[in-house]
Structures are given as structure tokens and as C-alpha cells.
Design goal:
By secondary structure, this protein is an alpha/beta fold. It has 16 helices and 22 strands. The radius of gyration is 23 Å and the shape is globular. Bound molecules: NADP nicotinamide-adenine-dinucleotide phosphate and magnesium ion.
């Protein structure tokens, strides 16, 4: 075995016969341009701001590309293009024709699936397995699904006429860059709206790749405009007078700023915000399956998931057993190069996010919780964090209340159903939850009492374009996905 391979080889502690040799996806299978301009009115245009910023690979800290920084004048230009496209073309086009464009985008994402997956992983740090098997196919599926609705709105809203709203301003986060763009763009186009979308500063590249596809698909100019930038760019979209709808996915803090900014205007909004999901394991659950679900819920994708199962409640009689199984499984997780097809836990998205996670880990220790981390070695370059669990956590601890958005799990025990329902509901958030039990009656009892938008039973983090997603309380309002996902983009007459 060569020295290089030996160095990257992961020897599993519990099964010494299993050794995975690295299976590195090839960077060269994807084309990343050194510079990207703004995608406005069907063309890539230099920013009026004349400013650019770099996006890096968080696993290596290498610069991947230089990306335009849209200023206020650029936002104005993009909104004007979207307005003109709406008035002159898109709202007048027969719905079945609109659907063809949306189908075309879906098919082109499938055709370029490998390239999308590579770029997503390079730009954001998530394991290639995740980008390849989840993000990219699910993004394509969203376009397929909403293409199907475009000419069937009369069945979605019987006896009503569904009219588009106009120009939608869409702002998305860095954890699912392509998928969030699909969640936003597909229903907007299907219902006859036009779009100005801003991806997150650290992960703009798959949205820009999508812009190339949109150009190639011959979508009428201005129907989708993709402009890159920072928080100010997002604020300029939110505050623009000619925007009819804001669709935002991101933090609760920015969600509140947006809510204040649009108060008193006619802008409609959907806000998909943070979460602090509880996974609950009852003593009658299939424990190995449950532990796998918990691991998947918090460690895969580095915990960069709004619905990450970042709290765990285990029934007292199986508590010790579950903790041991969790620790054993944590030792078999492969942490490191996201481009390796074996990797389970990739890079943290940015230096800032790593610092935030590390602050919470320190806080958990200061709060008196007991920490356990995987023994794995972390790569020297890039932003990485060991899978971490805390036991002996109190309900009031900040690590049990606040969104950490990293691979950190806060664990508590419980005795009765009522106790765990109260504990699970006792945060400011309400995005998702998970229940692990053999009894259907228990599942029905809990799901009716949990204040969470999604409750998974004996599984976790499962998504489908046909099912709605969204939160309660500080996790936001409005639903995306499914039939419900059409509502926020129409007015019914
Ligand atoms: P964030 O800081 O709120 O940023 C989200 C987006 O808003 C980014 O494009 C950001 O631009 C932009 N932005 C920042 N300040 C703004 C402002 N004042 N006005 C308008 N836009 C502004 O969130 P994040 O850190 O990127 O993402 C993580 C958060 O998203 C987590 O809280 C997570 O739970 C949440 N999330 C929720 C869902 C859901 O469906 N509920 C899904 C995924 C993620 P920059 O990137 O340039 O700062
Ligand atoms: Mg990046």
C-alpha cells in the first residue's frame, strides 16, 4: 500500500478487518470558473458595484472562485429585469409552456448531477455522498414536482383562480445551497412569478451553475435572476419597493430583522428559520435502528441541518445501553475529506461557524455537562469538528436550548410520555422532531402533542418534494414543498 493511501486509510476500531481505502471524487469532473458575474436578465453581467469576493473550499481553505458582490444598484437592476419579465412574458405565458421550462431545468440538473455534487461539496464542505445522493437528486425532484403543478393549479385550488404575486425575492442559507434554490425557484415559477435569488456568501457556486443551466434552458430573460453578495445584498432585496414576496431560509435572528423590515408593507413572506429538534427513544424502540437514526440526524452533514436532531431524550431503562451504542457508533464515523466517498462527516462550512460551534462546546463543559468526542484525528487544514455528545445536560442549559448548527448532541433521560413531551416542546423552536418506538399508539399520541412542523417516526431527515416542510414558533412560518408550497406564491380570487 502506498504511503499516501496508508495515511488516509481509516481503520475501524470495532472491526479490524474493515479498512476503507480512500475513494476520492475527481475535482476535474466539474468546471468552476475563476470569476462569476451576476446573472441578470438572462446574461452574466459585471456588477455595478465593481466589487468581488472569494469563495473558498472549507476543507482545504483554497480559493475556488471570485464572485460578484451585488450592491444596491445591482439589486435594482435585477428586480427591474424580474418585473419586466413578469409583466411582458411570464405571467402571460400558458401554464403548460411554463411547465416545459421547469421540466427542462429538472432534466438538465440530472444531466449535470455529478458536476453539481462536486461543486456543492467543494464550496460547502459536505460529504460528496450527501451531495450526490441527497442534495442534487432532491433538487431535481423539486423541479419535476412543481413542473407538474404548473398547469394544474385549478385542481390545487378548486373553484378559485390562483394568480401570481409578481416578483419574488428569495434569500437562502449555506447548508443546502442548490436544494434551497430549488425549493424556492420551482414553486415560484410554477405559479407564474419571477425571481431574484441570493445564495449565501460562502456557497454561491451551485446557484451560479444553476444560472448557467437556466440560460442554456432558454428561460425567457429576467424570469430568474441570481445575484451574489452578502447580508446587505439580502437586505436590499428585502427592502426593495417592487418586490411582492420574500422567501427566506436562514437564521431566526435574520428572520426577525426581515419581519420588522416588511411590517406594514404588502409583501407576503415565508420564513424558514432555525431549529432545535428533539429525538426521543422509548424503551421499546429497535435500539440499533434508533441509534443509527440519531447519528444520521446530528452528525451527517456536520449538523448543518435546520432540522438536525440536536437534542436526544432517552427513556431511563435503556439510557446506559443507548449511550454506549452511540459512543461505539461515533468511533466508526469517518471524519475528513468531503470529496472522499467514504466520508460521513465533512468540513464545517466556515471559520466563523467552526468558532461558533467551539464556543458552544466550551459552554457545554462550563455548564457542567459531560462531554464525549470521537477519538478520530482531524485534518490539519480546513475547518473540522469532532462528533461530540453531552450527557448530564439540564433542560435550561444553553446547549439544550440554542441552535448550535454543528455536530453536537445534547442528551437527557426521561421516564414518562408527559415528561418527554413537555421537555421536547420546551425550546423557542418547533421545526422537527423524531420518535423511536415500537408502538403506533405512542407515535400518534406524541405527534399530536409535539409542537413541531415535521415529526418523523422510526426514521429521521427524510424529505420528499410532495410533503410540506416548515416550522412553529421561532422556526418561522409558511410551508415549502407539496401542495402547501404553492400557497405562499399565489393570491386566490
Ligand atoms: P443567515 O445568517 O440568516 O443567512 C441566511 C441568508 O440571509 C444568507 O444568504 C445571508 O447572506 C442572508 N442575510 C444575512 N443578513 C441579512 C439581512 N439583514 N437581510 C437579508 N438577508 C440577510 O443564516 P445562515 O447562517 O446562512 O444559515 C443557517 C441558518 O439557516 C440556521 O439557523 C438554520 O437553522 C437555518 N435554516 C433553516 C432551514 C429551514 O427550512 N427552516 C433550512 C436551512 C437552514 P450571507 O450569507 O451573505 O450572510
Ligand atoms: Mg465556499
Amino acid at each position: 500500500m502506498s504511503k499516501a493511501i496508508k495515511k488516509n486509510t481509516i481503520q475501524l476500531k470495532f472491526d479490524s478487518a474493515r479498512v476503507y481505502e480512500p475513494a476520492i471524487e475527481s475535482k476535474s469532473a466539474a468546471k468552476i470558473k475563476p470569476v462569476y458575474d451576476l446573472f441578470i436578465n438572462g446574461k452574466f453581467e459585471k456588477p455595478l458595484s465593481k466589487k468581488y469576493f472569494n469563495t473558498i473550499n472549507p476543507a482545504s481553505e483554497e480559493i475556488l472562485s471570485s464572485v460578484a458582490m451585488a450592491g444596491k444598484a445591482d439589486v435594482n437592476k435585477a428586480v427591474l429585469a424580474a418585473r419586466n419579465a413578469y409583466e411582458r412574458t411570464w405571467k402571460k405565458m400558458p401554464a403548460a409552456e411554463r411547465a416545459k421550462y421547469i421540466y427542462r431545468i429538472a432534466r438538465m440538473i440530472q444531466e449535470k448531477a455529478r458536476e453539481f455534487a462536486i461543486i456543492e461539496t467543494l464550496d460547502g464542505g459536505k460529504p460528496i455522498r450527501e451531495s450526490r445522493d441527497f442534495d442534487v437528486p432532491t433538487a431535481a425532484n423539486h423541479f419535476f414536482y412543481y413542473a407538474g403543478w404548473a398547469d394544474k393549479l385549478e385542481y390545487a385550488f378548486p373553484n378559485r383562480k390562483a394568480m401570481p404575486l409578481g416578483v419574488a425575492g428569495q434569500i437562502i442559507p449555506w447548508n443546502f445551497p442548490l436544494l434551497m434554490a430549488a425549493w424556492k425557484i420551482a414553486p415560484a415559477l410554477a405559479t407564474g412569478n419571477t425571481v431574484v435569488l441570493k445564495p449565501a456568501e460562502t456557497t454561491p457556486l451551485t446557484a451560479l451553475k444553476l444560472a448557467e443551466i437556466i440560460q442554456e434552458a432558454d428561460l425567457p430573460p429576467g424570469v430568474v435572476n441570481i445575484i451574489t453578495g452578502a447580508g446587505d445584498t439580502g437586505a436590499n432585496i428585502v427592502n426593495h419597493a417592487d418586490i411582492n414576496k420574500i422567501a427566506f431560509t436562514g437564521s431566526t435572528a435574520v428572520g426577525k430583522i426581515i419581519q420588522r423590515a416588511i411590517a406594514g408593507t404588502n409583501k407576503k413572506a415565508t420564513l424558514e428559520l432555525g431549529g432545535k429538534a428533539a429525538n426521543i427513544i422509548f424503551d421499546d424502540a429497535p435500539l440499533d435502528q434508533a441509534v443509527e437514526g440519531i447519528i444520521n440526524g446530528i452528525f451527517f452533514n456536520q449538523g448543518h441541518v435546520c432540522c438536525a436532531g440536536s437534542r436526544l431524550y432517552v427513556q431511563e431503562s435503556v439510557y446506559e445501553q443507548v449511550i454506549q451504542k452511540l459512543k461505539d457508533r461515533m468511533e466508526t464515523l469517518i471524519v475528513g475529506n468531503p470529496m472522499d466517498k467514504n466520508t460521513d462527516v465533512g468540513a464545517i462550512n466556515s471559520r466563523e461557524q467552526l468558532a461558533t460551534i467551539q464556543r458552544y462546546i466550551k459552554l457545554g463543559n462550563q455548564e457542567g455537562a459531560e462531554m464525549y468526542q470521537s477519538a478520530c484525528a482531524l485534518p490539519k487544514k480546513g475547518f473540522f469538528c469532532k462528533p461530540t455528545i453531552f450527557t448530564n445536560v439540564a433542560q435550561s442549559n444553553r446547549i439544550a436550548q440554542e441552535e448550535i448548527f454543528g455536530p453536537v448532541l445534547a442528551i437527557q433521560s426521561f421516564r414518562t410520555d408527559d415528561e418527554v413531551i413537555e421537555k421536547a416542546n420546551n425550546t423557542a423552536f418547533g421545526l422537527s422532531a423524531g420518535i423511536w418506538t415500537d408502538k403506533g399508539s405512542k407515535i400518534f399520541n406524541l405527534t399530536s402533542k409535539m409542537r413541531a412542523g415535521v415529526v418523523w417516526a422510526n426514521t429521521y431527515n427524510k424529505f420528499d418534494p410532495t410533503s410540506p416542510f416548515g416550522g412553529y414558533k421561532e422556526s418561522g412560518y409558511g410551508r415549502e414543498g407539496g401542495l402547501h408550497g404553492l400557497f405562499p406564491y399565489v393570491k386566490l380570487v
